[in-house]
Structures are given as structure tokens and as C-alpha cells.
């Protein structure tokens, strides 16, 4: 299966681009941590250079083994730039989760608890029909697991309007922050509340389309707790 090659190591190899210059102690190259952060997200930010200027696009993605697949329109500039006729498109892709708002006694030390992944590499358009099918199914299932088998597959017209790019997980790092506010010792006696406001995500009650066909029930994968 595409992208399912067994990893050679439990960690990615650090590079000059994946070692942060600030708070380096928060960086991790653990493969399982990177995968977990990627698998929990919905939207990535894809950065590249267009006409000499940086561009960052939010878009859907999915991980299959050691590859990320990114969805887009065939009219999208980065998708065209990553086509098979080109050597590929150098990109930087990021995914971030904000887990808590960190309130400190001083304005300077306010922060957020987060988990993030940054991937550097060269993106290529996916043209192989089997890999495109796998990638498109993975993109749908990444949003809601089980959904690809419970929806109509794309037809020829829709496939012609849809592009997918592939980015191998090679030059990768994770960065996280956890814990309390890091106030200065002289501020600990100040009369200001300090702590963490945890954030959480999950499904709310599903809202059905008004035009659902008669007899269509809520699928089990949407009624289970997120």
C-alpha cells in the first residue's frame, strides 16, 4: 500500500530546519508523537513561495503511513506548481492544536499550551489512479472515520476538478508546551489569578439536512462520543 513502508527508526532525524532556535527543549522528533498530532488535526497550513513572495494556504490533509496527502482544486496555484512535469514544489506544512490558555501574573508570561508539527519537503502531484483513490478516501476518513464508505465516490467530472499532492514525512519535528505559567519569582505574591484554561474539542449534536431522503438515520460513527 502506498505510504505504508515500515519506519526504520522510532524518531525522525533532526536537521538544521527542524531544530528550533527558541525553546529547543520543547522540540521532539518522536515518530509516534508526530503521527498522533497529525492524526488529531483537520486543517494544515501549507506554505510555499509564489512569484518571490511567501504564501500560506489552509487546507485539508490526511496521513497514510509516512506520507501526507493534501487536497485542493486543479486550478489551485500550488497544485499546478507541484505537477508531474515539474521537479515538485518546496513547501513547509504545519499543524497546531491549542490545548489551553496559560494566564500568568505578568502580561509578558501569558502563553498557550500547544502541540504542533512542522514538515519540510518537496510536494508532488499524485497522478497514479490507485494512489489518488487511496488518498481521497483517506482525506474523507480523516475528517470523520468511516465516512468514505458511507458516501458516493467522486465521479469523473469531480475527479477531474480535484487535485491531490503528496508530501513525504522525512524532515519533520514536533513542538509542544504543557504546564503552568512561568512567572518570575518576584511576581508570585502578586494578587492576580494564574493558571490554565483548558480547551477541548468534540462533536456537538449532529444537525441533519432538511432535505434528507426518508428513512436515512444518523450513522453509528456520528453518534459515538468523539
- Count the helices. How many? 5
Say what the CATH topology is.
Pnp Oxidase, Chain A
By oligomeric state, this entry counts as single chain
Runs with pLDDT <50, length 5+? Answer: none
Instruction: Determine the fraction of residues in helical runs and give it as a percent range.
Output: 10-25%
For the record, the count of structural domains works out to 1
Count of β-strands: 9
**Which of globular, elongated, flat, extended, rod-shaped describes the shape?**
globular
Spatial sequence of strands, sheet with the most strands? 2-3-4-7-6-5
Give the CA-CA distance, first to last residue. 28 Å
Supply the CATH superfamily name: Electron Transport, Fmn-binding Protein, Chain A
Strand content: 25-35%
| CATH second-level architecture | Roll
Quick structural gist:
This protein is α+β, with helices and mostly antiparallel strands.
Keywords:
Pnp Oxidase, Chain A; alpha+beta; 226 residues; 5 helices
Give me the secondary-structure topology.
Layout: E1 27-28, H1 31-40, E2 43-50, E3 53-64, E4 67-73, H2 77-81, E5 89-103, E6 111-125, H3 129-143, H4 156-160, E7 162-168, E8 171-177, E9 195-198, H5 220-223
Antiparallel strand pairs: 1-8, 2-3, 2-5, 3-4, 4-7, 5-6, 5-9, 6-7, 6-8
Amino acid at each position: 500500500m502506498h505510504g505504508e513502508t515500515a519506519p526504520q527508526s522510532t524518531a525522525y532525524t533532526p536537521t538544521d530546519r527542524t531544530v528550533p532556535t527558541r525553546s529547543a527543549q520543547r522540540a521532539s522528533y518522536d515518530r509516534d508523537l508526530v503521527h498522533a498530532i497529525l492524526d488529531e488535526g483537520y486543517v494544515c497550513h501549507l506554505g510555499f513561495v509564489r512569484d518571490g513572495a511567501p504564501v500560506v494556504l489552509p487546507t485539508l490533509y490526511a496521513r497514510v503511513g509516512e506520507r501526507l496527502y493534501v487536497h485542493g482544486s486543479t486550478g489551485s496555484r500550488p497544485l499546478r506548481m507541484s505537477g508531474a512535469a515539474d521537479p515538485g514544489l518546496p513547501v513547509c506544512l504545519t499543524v497546531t492544536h491549542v490545548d489551553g490558555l496559560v494566564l500568568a501574573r505578568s502580561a509578558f508570561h501569558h502563553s498557550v499550551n500547544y502541540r504542533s508539527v512542522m514538515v519540510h519537503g518537496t510536494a508532488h502531484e499524485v497522478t497514479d489512479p490507485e494512489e489518488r483513490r487511496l488518498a481521497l478516501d483517506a482525506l474523507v476518513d480523516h475528517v470523520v472515520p468511516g465516512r468514505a464508505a458511507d458516501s458516493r465516490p467522486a465521479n469523473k467530472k469531480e475527479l477531474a476538478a480535484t487535485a491531490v499532492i503528496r508530501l513525504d514525512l522525512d524532515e519533520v519535528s514536533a513542538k509542544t508546551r504543557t504546564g503552568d505559567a512561568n512567572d518570575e519569582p518576584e511576581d508570585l505574591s502578586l494578587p492576580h489569578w494564574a493558571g490554565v484554561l483548558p480547551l477541548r474539542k468534540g462533536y456537538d449534536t449532529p444537525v441533519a439536512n432538511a432535505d434528507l431522503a426518508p428513512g436515512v438515520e444518523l450513522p453509528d460513527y456520528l453518534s459515538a462520543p468523539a
